[in-house]
Amino acid sequence: xxxxxxxxRRHFLxxxxxxxxxxxxxxxxxxxxxxxGDSGVRETIAKANDLTYRVQRLLFGRNALATEYSENDIRQxxxxxxxxxxxxxxxxxxxxxxxxxxxxxxTGLVEKPLxxxxxxxxxxxxxxxxxxxxxxxxxxxxxxxxxxxLSRVLDEAKVKPEARYVVFRCFDTIEQTLNGxxxxxxxxxxxxxxxxxxxxxxxxxxxxxxxxNGAPVRVRVERQLGYKMPKxxxxxxxxxxxKPFGQGHGGYWEDNGYDWYGGx
Amino acid sequence: xxxxxxxxxxxxxIGRKRESLLMNQPLERTALEKMAPAGKxxxxxxxxxxxxxxxxxxxxxxxxxxSGLQIFNARPDLYIGQQSGFGFDNAILRFDAAxxxxxxxxxxxxxxxxxxxxxxxxxxxSGDNLEARGFPAWATIPSYQDLATGRVIHFFFxxxxxxxxxxxxVSSLVNGHLVRDLIxxxxxxxxxxxxxxxxxxxxxxxxxxxxxxxxxxxxFVLIILLPLMVLTGLTMSxxxxxxxxxxxxxxxxxxxxxxIHFLGMALIVLFFLVHMLMVLATGPLNALRSxxxxxxxxxxxAPDATAQPGE
Lengths: 264, 311
What we know:
The complex is a heterodimer. Chain A has helices spanning 3-26, 40-45, 48-59, 89-96, 118-123, 150-157, 190-193, 252-255; strands spanning 103-108, 114-117, 126-134, 140-149, 165-177, 180-189, 199-204, 207-208, 218-220, 233-239. By secondary structure, chain A is an alpha+beta fold. Chain A has one domain (66-255): Oxidoreductase, molybdopterin-binding domain (Sulfite Oxidase, Chain A, domain 2). In chain A, the strands form 2 sheets. A 5-stranded mixed beta sheet of chain A has the order 2-1-10-5-6. The radius of gyration of chain A is 24 Å and the shape is globular. Residues 1-7 of chain A have low confidence and may be disordered. By secondary structure, chain B is α+β, with helices and mostly antiparallel strands. Chain B has 2 domains: 48-74 and 144-297, Fumarate Reductase Cytochrome B subunit (Up-down Bundle), CATH 1.20.950; 77-134, no CATH class. The longest helix of chain B is centred in the middle third of the chain and has 29 residues, at 147-175. The radius of gyration of chain B is 24 Å and the shape is globular. The relative contact order of chain B is 0.14. At the A-B interface, α1, α3 and β4 of A face α4, α5, α9 and α11 of B.
């Protein structure tokens, strides 16, 4: 076998490889159609999130606590995200009276539906925690949150055994469409709902929860990402399925392709 | 039976004896000579498990890197510590875009030093389609900005990568690949200088064994870098952190873990580029054959071309 032949073959392969990698590099839109929102491929590989959810639930302590930090770790104001000033008329009306007429509705699969005022929520035993908020975008911010444990509210409402999810509905319109506005909503399972650090927060960094951060009440689910912690909370519904809500994926961002389990 | 079969089934411990038995049989020698008309023996170099996991890694890393850059673009900054500084500055890398007298420009800021990187980092695209984004469209999957889909792809291939790593680890322990071929020995350390010199002179040997630099590189990537990527990736998960808070501690904070994850990606890309260059430089056909069929043509001129495995 002559050396020359080898070299020319090598040159051919070099050219072929470089050419091939150029196609690969300029061809990252090659996967765009395959991964579009309604494609079967995307739906299939998105099932990895179910696996992540099951593995975390199976192997990890159900009541394992997110790390709580010290006062010294609060180095900056809590960064607001998403809506920061809802313009929905019912919200604006409540805001005008400093949320004196606010009522948190607890409905759905419960023995005793509730309608709790801000004072009633504040008079329940409170929990304060300094935790790290992780946004799906990649940033983190540490702040102190005060509120009532969701488990206490659920116990008072007496959750029916067939309930599997807690669905949070909000005041704010997150998106305007031709068919009207879409209001923010989200959901978690009962394990995260009953987790000791899952609170309905009305206080932040030692003060009343600001509008930009979700006043009068927002949810804190400390083992999940920020989009799983709705702000401007209007009502809580206990449900056995997520199908009837929105487009059926369990939340506004979930309806837009984000994973339902946000603990990753 | 061809002698190449020998390498397939022997474990490093019992293999030597069985192999020498086979090699002493005249029939096997004839077969060997038939296989290697140019006097360069074709040997069985790569186990099936090595070959399958190699290609699974190639696929995984392709999708993980490009979907990872998509995820990075959602917040094209890197920070040190637990949190991202908005009220203070703890960023070590930032891509951004700004309007200037010369139109929109893209910038990269590393440790406070700002560079104009229009067209690649911070601002990219063509003609009227200029877009403010960290990495350009050709470096991300999907090409357009879609964090949700980037995450879906990333976590799917993250699971495949972990399964591949575990499969590789178990099979390489069982068939001896890990201990015999990858873990550098003391004699490898002694040979490091001469091996480096050989590489610099572009003098490459083709043996069944990996050379010293190969051993160090593969061992580093497989035993240190890829597990580090898995661990720093897990550290970014708030669910994992609640159960394993020590992960956040050993990496010095969630944002530091994200930064290490990014730097690890850069090392993987560097490894890939050098790997491709070495394949091209040392004989792409031989390398491709060995990682597809397992068979590799060795030099007779190399002093230990016929050395026993593990010797």
